[in-house]
Every structure is written in C-alpha cells, then in structure tokens.
Amino acid sequence: MDLHLRGKRVLITGASKGIGAAAAEAFAEEGCHLRLAARSGDQLKAVAERLRAAHQIDAATHVVDLRKPEDIARLVKEADDIDILVNNAGDIPGGSIDKIEEPTWRHAWELKVFGYINITRAIYAQMKARGGGVIINDIGAAGEKFDANYICGSTGNAALMSFTRTLGSKSLADNIRVVGINPVRLAPIATSRC
Question: Which has the closest alpha carbon to 11: 39, 32, 45, 35?
C-alpha cells in the first residue's frame, strides 16, 4: 500500500521488538527513513540491519533510556529532522493496588507516561518550528477497558489518552497531528516489555 510517506523521517521509541519493530517494518515498507530508539542495543541493531537490507532505507539506532532526561535530550538533538514521532516504549507491570508499590509505579511511569510526555514536548517544539509533523502515541486499550489487575498500566494509559486528546485538540493550529492508538490484546502480542 502506498501511503505517500516515501522519504519521510520517522523516530520510533521501543523499536527493538514487538509493536515498535513491527511499526518500523511498516514505515520501512513505505520507504521512510528511520531512527530507532530502545534500551537494547543488540536487538535494535539487528532490526535496523534487517530493515536496511530489505527496504533500502536509512535506519539509524539510538540506545537510550527514556527515563533519563539526558538520554531524551541527546535523542531529540540527534533526531531534530523527523517528520513523524511514534511513542511506543513502555514496561508497566501487571498487578493490583496491593501488589504494585510506589517505587515500581514511579519506575514504570517514568518510561511510559513521562517518557511520552517529555519527548513529545521537545519534538513538538521542533516540529512547530519547522512547520508541522505527526505524533503517534501507542497507548493501549487498558486506559479505556480498566483492569484492576493492571492498575498501574490502566491508570497510565488513561493519563496518556487525556494527554494525547488535550494536545491534539490544539495541535492542528501548528500543523501537527497528534493521535493515539490503543491496540487491544485479543491474543498475546509477540513482545516483552520494551
């Protein structure tokens, strides 16, 4: 399918496996040049090499932990030319309110919730200065289909849905589309936490 994306530059976080790697494959098939970010350098390198060979596109890798402000700053500086941002990184554990302690909760949200927010803030400013872009937040259906045994994830996803809708409600004035997707896990997705 030709979505008229050939030559677009796409940054995908959590791109070393699972949904992130699948998104990278789809964008590569469309002829996009990729910047792939994740914590796992070896897996990330393998994905980039495979996509370069299969689709004759550029694929740069960035080994980063989006919990760390200095890693976000470095990534944003290195990816200052992107047209599309795909926020996908996350590793929120399952568990009920009595099983998830505050340090675990904060650790999970530092990556998925604050990671999405902080990288979006920086990339949004760059896109606005350049005249436009697209931000896609891969959130997850648990923000709408509440699960008491995934309370940290359901709550985090609901926060990201609100963030996406709120930012998206004004972003078109800056020629930036901000959208969220909520994959439903009808069957297990071949991934582990990114």
Answer: 35
Torsions phi, psi of 131, nearest 5? 105, 5
181: left (phi over 0), alpha (psi -120 to 50) or beta: beta
- Residues 6+ positions from 142 with CB-CB distance below 8 Å: 150, 153, 154, 157
The CA distances from residue 37 to 60, 76, 79, 187, 194, in Å, are 9, 11, 10, 26, 10
On whether the CB atoms of residues 3 and 27 are closer than 8 A, the answer is no
**Strand pairing report for 84-87 and 9-13:** parallel
pLDDT by 10-residue block (mean), the chain, 194 residues: 86 96 96 97 96 97 97 96 96 95 97 97 97 97 91 96 97 98 63 48
Lookup: tokens for 1: 């399918």
Angle at 12 between CA 110 and CA 166, to 5 degrees: 60
C-alpha 179 chain-centroid distance: 12
